[in-house]
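Batch manifest, entry 17 of 40.
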Amino acid sequence: MFRGTYTAIVTPFKNGQIDEDAFRKLIDFQINNGVEGIVPVGTTGEAATLDYDEHLKVIEITVQQAKGRCKIIAGTGSNSTREAIELTQKAEKLGIDCALLASPYYNKPTQEGVYRHYRAIGESSSLSLMLYNVPGRTAGEIGIETCARLARDCATIVAIKEAGGSTDRVSALRNVLPPEFAILSGDDSMTLPFMAVGAVGVVSVASNIIPKPMTELVNNFLGERPTDSMRIHLRYFQLFKDLFLESNPIPVKTALNLMGMIDAEFRLPLCEMGTANREQLSRTLRALKLI
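Output type: structure tokens
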């Protein structure tokens, strides 16, 4: 089962290219601070602005640098089922542990279409697959009954990253999914509430900059120390919110830049953080003694 803290890692850029040296250092920073896994080329990794070869290159670097020290869950989703299959198969050959597949976006399929999309990907690969429900990004969701059908019919679909923002939905999912099917929070500020109703970890943005506290928050709860988890949640709650003052990953890359770890470089249509929001984020980082 996929339990624990998985970092949705940023993709550093320098002069328009992937900054491989900075990226490798970020990977080591995550592993040295105890995360269970790393999730490259997701939303936080700016996958939407990477070309096809760059997408696979980021995955390859992640696998190489991790050297088996943690799990690698690579984003391979698409609103084209054929493209998602191709990316998943190529990522599997690179040695990842699991593929993360956002629900098909823009073309707004029916739930039957969503089911067939994931089933086709599952039948094309022996790789473990993680569904990704993020309606705020995709304008659609993976229905609860669709999740149940996929868990029942596709042995390789073993987890879901849930970013719908609803504890009621997590409760409903937990009631219809097998006990071994992992539910992970897709929102740092909802990690503790989601775990209270059945989630077993998080795919985290905040762990890019605070990997150890996020790991402790999750592991404390899994170890039946909820009060310790709540203390960490409350300490970093403002940071969780500030990391979404603007579209992800603008704030988290800005924070990493303020910490001296990467350049604050984005690819259009993403751009630098606004002055007022950057000042707010800086205040929070200073209050937490991160800068």
